Amino acid sequence: MEKTTVIGILAGIGCIVVSILLDGQLGNFFNLPSIFIVVGGVIASTIVSYPSKSLKSLKTVFKNAFKTKDIDLNEDIELIIRIANVARREGLLALEDSIQNIDNPFLQKGIMLIVDGADAELVKSVLETEIAFIEERHSQSQAIILSMSSYSPAYGMIGTLIGLINMLKNLDDMDSLGPSMAVALVTTFYGVVLANLVFTPLAKKLKTQSDMESLQKELYLEGLLSIQDGENPRIIKDKLTAFIARKDLKHEEESTNPEVKEL
Questions:
Q1: Per-domain residue ranges for the chain?
Q2: Cβ atoms within 10 A of the Cβ of 246, count?
Q3: Does residue 188 contact residue 153 with C-beta atoms inside 8 Å?
Q4: In whole angstroms, how far apart are CA 135 and each of 22, 108, 111, 184?
Q5: Model pTM?
Q6: Cβ count within 10 A of residue 231
Q7: 35, 45, 71, 161: most buried, per Cβ within 10 A?
Q8: ∠7-1-133 over CA atoms, to 5°?
Q9: Tens of pLDDT, residues 22-39
C-alpha cells in the first residue's frame, strides 16, 4: 500500500477535526441530507459523463492510487545492461532464453520483437504505440477523478442553495435563521473537502505514477534499440543514466565492469 496517500488523507482529516474541536463541536458539521446531495450528486454526474465501460474500471483506478508502484530505474538500467551483455557475448537470438527471467510484459515484448528479427523502426513503432495507448488509458482514468473533483464543490453549492431557499421560506422564525444557515453551509464544506482532500490529490498521485511508468518504458525502449544496434554495454549504461536525476543515481564499485552480473 502507498503509505503517503493514506497518511496524507488522514493528516488532512486530522487537521480539519482538530480545527473544529478547537472552537466548536463535530456534531455541528454532521448533516445527513448534505452528505446525500454531495456524494449522490457526484456519483450521478459521473455516471452521466462517462460510458459504463470506463466506470467499471473506476474501482481499480482508486485501488491503484493506494498501491505502491515499485519502479527503480537504477535496477532497470542494471537489467538492461545484463541483457546487453548476453546479446554481446552470445548474439541476439540468445535473448530468447532470458525472457522467462523477466517479469515485465513490455520488456518481454520488445525482446521478442528483436529475437524475431524485426528491424529497429518496427520495434520502435510497436513499443511507442503501446506507450501512447497506456498513457491514454491512464489519462482517461485521471480525467474521471478530476471530473468528480469539479462536481463536488458544485453539488456543495447546490446543497447550500437548497438550504438557503428552505431557510428563506421560514423567515418568520428568526431564532432558526442561524442554525439553518449553518446547515446550508455544511454542504459546501463537504464538497470542498472531497474535492481538495480526496479527488484532486488522488488524480495527481495517479498522474505521477503514470509519468514514472512511462519513463520506465521509455528507458526500456532506448535500451532495447541500443542492444539491437550492437552498442557497447558501457555506452548503453551511460546513455540510460540520462533518464535519472544525478542525485538519484546508484553508484556501484562494480559499475566499472558491466559484465560482472549475469542475467
A1: 31-263
A2: 7
A3: yes
A4: 45, 19, 21, 41
A5: 0.82
A6: 17
A7: 45
A8: 110
A9: 988 888 888 888 899 999
